[in-house]
């Protein structure tokens, strides 16, 4: 009788252990995917900064070519150009983060750096400037 009572208990413990292993494996995989995704952030930031620099340079050229343009019109053109650039970059930057979450996904960030001729030092500088960003919720409340 004692043996009959122990077997279901042992099976339940084994089932619980398997469930715990599955949970841990899933959470580790999610954590690693998040880490890989975060590694792409400096490249995305550098790309957006590069786009912003191009926009500002072109708006400056426009100012020199059309000095008579009214300030309200100039501001509207600037807002429109920035919105267009933001919309063009949105889907690819979101997608590269998604793709980067998979093992080997860093190749997509490398492709962005190559295609847009992003300066590796600029990308590293962005990454270094984001280090203080890693704070706990307790740090934020101070």
TrEMBL record:
InterPro entries in the cross-refs: 4pyrrol_synth_GluRdtase_dimer, GluRdtase_dimer_dom_sf
Superkingdom of this protein's organism: Bacteria
Ranges for domain Tetrapyrrole biosynthesis glutamyl-tRNA reductase dimerisation: 20-118
PANTHER family named in the record: GLUTAMYL-TRNA REDUCTASE
The protein's name: Glutamyl-tRNA reductase
């Amino acid at each position: 009788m004692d043996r009959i009572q122990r077997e279901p208990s042992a099976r339940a413990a084994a089932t619980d252990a398997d469930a715990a292993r599955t949970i841990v494996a899933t959470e580790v995989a999610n954590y690693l995917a998040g880490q890989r995704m975060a590694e792409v952030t400096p490249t995305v930031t550098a790309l957006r900064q590069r786009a912003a620099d191009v926009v500002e340079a072109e708006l400056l050229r426009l100012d020199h070519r059309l000095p008579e343009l009214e300030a309200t019109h100039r501001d509207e053109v600037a807002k429109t150009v920035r919105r267009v650039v933001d919309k063009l970059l949105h889907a690819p930057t979101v997608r590269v983060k998604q793709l980067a979450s998979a093992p080997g996904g860093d190749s997509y960030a490398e492709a962005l750096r190559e295609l847009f001729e992003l300066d590796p030092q600029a990308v590293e500088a962005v990454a270094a400037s984001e280090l203080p960003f890693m704070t706990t919720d307790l740090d934020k409340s101070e």
